[in-house]
Amino acid sequence: MSSLFGLDTYVGWEQPQHFNDCKRPAWDIGIRRVENEYRHSGYGEPAPRHKCADEEYCSHGSSFTKVMVRMVCHSCGSMQIVTGEASDDTGGTTGSTKHIAYGLPPRRVAGLLLWPAQPWLDFGRLSSEEPHDFVVTLPTVKHATQVTADTVVGQITQGMGKRRGRIWTTLAVPNPDGPYGRLVSPVHYTHANDGHDKGGSPLRTVTAAARWIAARLAEAAAVERAA
């Protein structure tokens, strides 16, 4: 069973850094688009000609649309500029947090916090009462930026049962040597329930999935206390 992509909603992102003496940390953020920006090969040299094996369908060219994101803190003077290319595959996206999940408040279930995450299967995406997967932490995590590889204790992911009904697969109890987790995932786990009789009975609700994770965490804590 592989780790699912909901973890990428929270883990692996970096926060812009203020200077150490910042008294009122806050970011003034601006976005700028520059049309027909030319690629440069060196000072005074002509722009390189576009070469692509698939020019008929390629959206690139000798010029491109540049997108710049400027972040400035007026208190400490820290500044960061991020530059990218706007194409069919890259650039800026705007919308509601319900589409990216990050920024939505967590649910408290079975003594755990369930942080909404991008769904792996898009099963019922944005058209059902459960449009997200979940990254699970202990209730000591107070803010989304604190959801890291060190604080995650489980994952809950939408799946499909034998009769095409919704089920929930779960991962629980972080362990660097655990057998469950995506090959390049920053978190691996000791336990998994795939919803198809591996790891226990199929989990039909998010609440049941959270309780399953809580039970595995309690078992692990009991073993650790007895050691």
Molecular shape: globular
Q: Structural class of the secondary structure composition?
A: mainly beta
Report the strand count: 9
The neighbouring-strand order within the major sheet is 4-5-6-7-8-9
> What can be said about the biggest beta sheet?
6 strands, antiparallel
What kind of assembly state do the chains in view correspond to? Answer: single chain
Strand content: 25-35%
- Report, as a whole number of angstroms, the end-to-end distance: 29 Å
The helix tally amounts to 2
Features:
227 residues, mainly beta, six-stranded antiparallel sheet, three-stranded antiparallel sheet, 2 helices, 9 strands, 11% helix
Report on the structure:
The chain is mainly beta. It has two helices and nine strands. Strands 4-5-6-7-8-9 form a six-stranded antiparallel sheet, covered by helices on one side. The longest helix has 21 residues. The model has no long low-confidence stretch (mean pLDDT about 85).
Concise overview:
The protein has 227 residues and is mainly β.
Produce the secondary structure layout.
Blueprint: E1 28-38, E2 63-72, E3 79-86, H1 97-100, E4 107-109, E5 112-117, E6 133-137, E7 152-160, E8 166-174, E9 189-193, H2 206-226
Antiparallel strand pairs: 1-2, 2-3, 4-5, 5-6, 6-7, 7-8, 8-9
